[in-house]
Amino acid sequence: MSEQLLPRPILQAENICVQFGEFHALSGMSLRMNPNSIHALIGPNGAGKTSFFNAISGIRPPNSGTVTFDGRIVTKMPAHERVHQGMARSFQVTNIFPTLTVAENIRLAVQARHRREGWVFWRSPAVRRDILEEAQLIMERIGIASRAGMPAGELSHGGQRSLEIGMALGGRPKLICLDEPLAGMGIDDVQATKELILGLKADTSVLLIEHNMSVVLSISDRVTVMVQGKKVAEDAPTAIRKNEAVMAAYLGSQA
Ligand SMILES: Nc1ncnc2c1ncn2[C@@H]1O[C@H](COP(=O)(O)OP(=O)(O)OP(=O)(O)O)[C@@H](O)[C@H]1O
To answer: Which stretches make up the ABC transporter domain (predicted)?
Structure first.
């Protein structure tokens, strides 16, 4: 496909460099991500995947390079401002309010978006009903509506990761960055979360760091492979499976 026929990328990172002292964690990393797609970032431990997430989400902006999100350069924009622009991120460690119920966690996430849009809590009972309804729809979508009244900290590990995705959805993001969403999950939770992630691309885009290769290769539209802070391959999963450089650098070590 020629450049002109490609859709405008939801995310474009160009020549990203990140240094910790003398150490180069990322050396000219680039990535172009299509909207409404699942794009996986894989590579061995220490390849720089989390550093790349930190660079694009503003947790630790790059030393050099450019990050463009939804047509706007955000390289130096603070992380919270990127959230306002529609970029959501989940972390390796779950990031929920454990003593609040599942429903309250989701409702807070939806409410935070409304507040950004200028909603005034005490003047808007009708909008409040909207919020409750939206929170209910999200809970159904992520498969935890039956546990709405449970303290979030009592959910299984898989349930907590789903809740985190639900909270991200409360912000109606254009892009969700998921850092190892399947880590530590049992087989049933893996299957449910895989289906949940697949369903996300109907209305958002997903950038995914994940070590579970069979899931990555079955749900992703594109896969970028990183080794030692650089991209070594980027292709469709079927081509990545056969890529000899990838096998040598990464998949071979797992075979
Ligand atoms: N704050 C930091 N200070 C110094 N070095 C760091 C820092 N953060 C990361 N690194 C180093 O940068 C390199 C890339 O780390 P990063 O966590 O980005 O890799 P990764 O691909 O996400 O690894 P993993 O799969 O194990 O999570 C590693 O060598 C790591 O030790």
So the answer is: 11-253
Complex prediction ipTM: 0.95
Q: How far is the CA of 49 from the centre of ligand 1 (A)?
A: 8
Q: Which two tokens stand for residue 254?
A: 């797992």
pLDDT digits (tens, 9 = 90+) for 134-188: 999 999 999 999 999 999 999 988 889 899 999 999 999 999 999 999 988 888 8
- Ligand 1 centroid vs 24 CA: distance in angstroms? 10
Per-residue DSSP letters for 174-223?
Answer: SEEEEESTTTT--HHHHHHHHHHHHHHTTTSEEEEE-S-HHHHHHH-SEE
Cα–Cα distances (Å) from 182 to 59, 74, 87, 119, in that order, read 22, 29, 20, 35
Q: Which atom of ligand 1 is nearest to the CA of 43?
A: 21
Query: Closest ligand 1 atom, CA of 47?
Result: 21
Backbone angles phi, psi at 35, to 5 degrees: -65, 155
Helix, strand, coil percentages, rounded to 5, for the chain: 45, 25, 30
Reduced to 3 states (helix: H, G, I; strand: E, B; else coil), residue 40 is strand
